[in-house]
Write a structure and sequence with these properties.
alpha/beta, Rossmann fold, 4 domains, 6-stranded mixed β-sheet, binds adenosine-5'-diphosphate, binds magnesium ion
């Protein structure tokens, strides 16, 4: 007699209930031969499903020996058991256990995907099986769109896709009406006729009697084993040699598995859009804020560069007082035009420009207003980045001739002139001095701009014509001659002015220091806010982990089904890890996209600061998304991979 394809020897299976031990199976010995069609019958709770799970390598016995084709299974690793499930067995469940978010043909293809069958080939196999089972018209439907009988056919198709040498059906007709039950039994009989070994669990004797052999179980023991028909052993099946067990994988196989895990993860994300979107939210917010902040900071630095860059690095500013914000500075009147004249004769000075700021009253025709008079040099406008809208700025000869010409800002235009009136060439009165408007400045959007009405006239005219010779200066700008270090010159000027004034009642600012202070400040603020954004990214990552953990609980039965049809632990781990990384990456892409949209609108709103998005934060964002996905996805993915197939299947 041929060797049995399945051989159980004194199998026992114990379950622990708190302290107590319960034997669901005890001393079960059984041989099943290739080509048999067997029914396992017994009352509910007698241990039929427990036996079936052991037969199908979903569960391992507590004791005894289980051999498949003569090979002992008790010392096989989880992935080797998965290989047996994938390649030797085909499972059919009472409640079909199809994945609801995949079409029936996609459900059917899962075992073939895990086996590594080439895509074209496995698809053809599935189509052929569907035709044989009469459900080819339903291939692309979702399981929920099928009747119970059709769903059971789909699950039979899934059992057959990898060959299904041994078909294990646990109450396959339990959820079907009697005529559909007969059809399903007819299919199983036909499969048996074609050589498949079929084992059916049922509590329906009428169903059992259509098989060739009935094994009766009671309280975990085999109480009867009756043959109804002559065994047609070897009739269809030449006893072929079982392929060796093992986990040898070719490189292509690994790539395929990875690609398939990727596809399944993508399918899962797409079929749970709302959940995926919520998962991504934290990542989106984090990435958007990081990129936006860095872009704003870039913009701010560029703005500062453009506003202050013209100042040049070899320019020194002299102010009265001990520093910015010195309250007594207004009372210091020692910085005068005399200082300017003396400084201009020094060899280390290229040029000197004084600046005087005085409040006064301006009037034009019947309008009278408070204004600020700024007596400046001709280079003031260029140095401070003030652009002219119409007319001209005054020039060196205006300065030398002390002409009474003025450049006015937009505030002054609006205050003094009617909308249709052209201010150019008009004479306005500063206190009682007439000056002619020669230029109008563009609206100054700078954060550093002076509020109120600003009227600029040559400093020489200011001193001689408007406020008299005795006046003190608000500020002196010194351009250091080439080949001189501004630091050395600052020291020399400091010594000179200190001796002239009798004490150091002024301070000298190097523009370079000034620019550096501001850029440093912007940088520190950027780093601080970026840290907050990074924290939000980490919180987003924890959110991903949270939802992945919940989703695994929710999808435990999916994981159980996948394992039952032969998924390795690695397949499950990869699927969930890739899903987590994909979710994070998609969140990252959406975050980057959102940052670009924000930048676009910031651009439209003509703020002074523009967002400058560079590739570095995008690269960093992508890397962080992948890292977050792996880091926060690993624990849930590993939990999923470590699930016990039987326990997972039982969950619904
Ligand atoms: P059935 O013949 O109805 O399929 P089962 O094989 O499912 O019976 O169960 C047999 C016995 O083992 C039952 O008493 C059941 O409560 C128990 N049992 C089955 N699975 C488990 C488990 N995972 N943990 C504890 N007890 C179990
Ligand atoms: Mg059962």
């Amino acid at each position: 007699m041929a060797n049995p394809i399945i051989s159980l020897q004194d199998i026992g299976r114990d379950f622990h209930y708190e302290e107590a031990l319960f034997s669901a199976l005890d001393k079960v010995s059984l041989d099943i031969f290739s080509g048999e069609m067997i029914a396992i019958v017994g009352a509910s709770g007698s241990g039929k499903s427990t036996l079936m799970n052991i037969l199908g390598c979903l569960d391992v016995p507590t004791r005894g020996s289980y051999r498949i084709n003569g090979q002992e299974t008790s010392n096989l690793a989880p992935d080797e058991l998965a290989k047996l499930r994938r390649e030797q067995f085909g499972f059919i469940f009472q409640r079909y256990h199809l994945l609801s978010h995949l079409s029936v043909i996609e459900n059917t293809l899962i075992p073939a995907i895990y086996k590594g069958t080439a895509p074209g080939r496995r698809y053809q196999q599935a189509v052929d099986i569907f035709k044989r089972l009469g459900i080819d018209s339903k291939a692309d439907a979702l399981p929920s769109q099928l009747s119970g009988g059709q769903q059971q056919r789909a699950s039979i198709a899934r059992a057959l896709i990898n060959g299904g040498k041994i078909i294990l059906a646990d109450e396959p007709t339990g959820a079907l009406d009697s005529s559909t039950s007969r059809q399903v039994m007819a299919i199983l009989r036909e499969l048996n006729d074609q050589g498949h070994t079929v084992v059916i669990v049922t509590h329906d004797m009428a169903i059992a009697e259509t098989t060739d052999r009935i094994i009766q179980i009671n309280d975990g023991s085999v109480v009867a084993d009756t043959s109804l028909a002559p065994c047609k052993l070897g009739q269809h099946y030449s006893q072929e040699k079982n392929p060796p067990l093992g986990l040898v994988q070719s490189g292509r196989g690994l790539f395929e598995r990875f690609f398939n895990a990727f596809q399944m993860a993508a399918r899962s994300i797409l079929s749970h859009r709302l959940r995926s979107a919520l998962t991504m939210l934290g990542i989106i917010i984090g990435i958007t804020s990081v990129i936006t902040i860095v872009a704003l900071s870039n913009g701010a630095q560029q703005l500062i560069g453009s506003k202050l860059g013209d100042l040049g690095t070899n320019v020194l500013q002299i102010y009265p007082g001990s520093g910015y914000g010195d309250k007594d500075a207004g009372a210091i009147h020692t910085l005068t035009i005399e200082d300017v004249n003396i400084l201009s004769k020094e060899g280390y000075v290229d040029s000197v420009t004084p600046m005087i700021r005085v409040p006064l009253t301006v009037h034009y025709e019947h309008v009278i207003a408070d204004a600020t008079l700024l007596g400046v040099g001709a280079s003031y406008f260029r140095v401070n980045g003030l652009a002219i809208e119409k007319g001209v700025t005054f020039n060196l000869s205006d300065e030398e001739e002390m002409r009474q010409v003025a450049v006015i800002d937009q505030n002054t235009v609006e205050k003094l002139f009617d909308a249709e009136k052209d201010p150019l060439g008009e004479v306005i009165w500063l206190n009682s001095v007439p000056v002619r408007v020669v230029g109008v400045l563009q609206k100054n959007k700078s954060l550093l701009s002076n509020p109120g009405l600003n009227i600029y006239i040559p400093y020489s005219s200011t001193i001689s014509r408007v406020i008299g010779n005795t006046s003190h200066l608000t500020n002196v700008t010194v351009r250091v001659a080439d080949q001189h270090s501004s630091e050395v010159v600052a020291n020399a000027i400091s010594r000179l002015l200190t001796s002239r004034h009798g004490k150091k009642d002024f301070f000298i600012e190097n523009n370079q220091d000034f620019i550096k202070t501001i850029t440093d400040t912007v940088f520190i603020i950027t780093v601080l806010i970026s840290c907050i954004a990074l924290i939000s990214l980490v919180v987003g990552g924890i959110g991903v982990m949270n939802i992945m953990l919940v989703s695994i609980t929710e999808r435990t039965s999916e994981i159980g089904i996948r394992m039952a049809v032969g998924a390795r632990q690695g397949d499950i781990l990869w699927q969930f890890l890739i899903e987590s990384v994909l979710v994070c990456l998609m969140g990252g892409f959406l975050g980057v996209g959102l940052a670009f949209i924000i930048a676009f609108f910031v651009g439209l709103m003509s703020f002074d600061i523009q967002m400058i998005i560079s590739w570095e934060p995008i690269l960093v964002a992508s890397i962080s998304c992948i890292t977050i996905g792996i880091f926060f996805g690993f624990l849930p993915a590993r939990n999923a991979a470590k699930l016990n197939p039987v326990a997972a299947l039982a969950r619904d």
